[in-house]
Recover the amino acids of this structure.
């Protein structure tokens, strides 16, 4: 069972450790372990780099000439990232991750074993990063000044994680954190009117369908840290391989990037 435990601004994940193959009920003698999750500015930078850092790398024909290993010409003759990570709906590509526009997000517990599957997921929540930082009273730094872009992202995404876990996120068979990992999926519906929604409460919405999936980030414990943070990400129109400081919670296959894997699991 995974549940929320607020402590010093961190979100606690209570992971029950089962004794028999991770499938049975917890014996009375076994204790649970607390895994704390904190979305940092560095975690947001990893997400931003994965989603935007490579977008213009193969933006013109000369890039395909200068870097034929990384860039390639597509069927229409345009220069593009080789083996680009891309989801589409009936041939129409999904939108790119645009943090300046209203999003929706959902936490997922994903099995590390083959085949991967979603073991548990939170409710789908509204996320408007820019509006939250401009509107919410606690979106300020220690000196009371407005947040910079990375801190704004960590504030808004961290608040969403906290809210999503408030009701509990669990899977009865989840007995070993090494067998599953936590991820957050981002969705973008072009028809969402952020002006009509409260950006501060991360209210429940019905907009987390595979057809609008644009990015996924995985959580792990960075080197030297005692808390879990975003360490990797996979984004629409990004690289095939996941990028970040620890790509373990963002697995890929020869044929599918992590975003495409998650999209398949959500169908």
């Amino acid at each position: 069972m995974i549940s929320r435990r607020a402590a010093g601004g961190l979100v606690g994940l209570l992971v029950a450790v089962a004794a028999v193959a991770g499938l049975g009920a917890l014996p009375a003698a076994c204790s649970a372990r607390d895994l704390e999750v904190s979305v940092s500015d560095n975690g947001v930078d990893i997400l931003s780099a994965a989603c935007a850092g490579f977008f213009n790398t193969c933006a013109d024909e000369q890039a395909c000439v200068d870097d034929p290993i990384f860039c390639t010409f597509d069927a229409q003759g345009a220069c593009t990232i080789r083996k680009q990570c891309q989801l589409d709906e009936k041939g129409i590509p999904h939108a790119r991750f645009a943090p300046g526009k209203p999003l929706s997000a959902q936490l997922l517990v994903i099995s590390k074993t083959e085949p991967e599957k979603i073991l548990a997921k939170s409710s789908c929540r509204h996320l408007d990063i820019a509006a939250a930082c401009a509107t919410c009273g606690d979106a300020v730094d220690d000196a009371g000044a407005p947040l910079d872009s990375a801190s704004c992202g960590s504030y808004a995404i961290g608040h969403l994680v906290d809210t999503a876990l408030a009701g509990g996120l669990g899977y009865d068979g989840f007995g070993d954190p090494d067998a599953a990992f936590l991820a957050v999926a981002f969705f973008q519906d072009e028809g969402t009117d952020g002006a009509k929604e409260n950006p501060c409460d991360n209210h429940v919405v019905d907009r987390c369908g595979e057809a609008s999936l644009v990015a996924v980030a995985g959580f792990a414990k960075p080197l030297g840290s005692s808390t879990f943070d975003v360490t990797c990400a996979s984004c629409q129109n990004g690289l095939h391989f996941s990028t970040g400081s620890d790509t373990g919670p963002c697995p890929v296959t020869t044929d599918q990037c992590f975003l495409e894997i998650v999209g398949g699991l959500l169908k």
About this structure: Residues 149-165 form the longest helix (17 residues). The two ends are 25 Å apart (CA to CA).
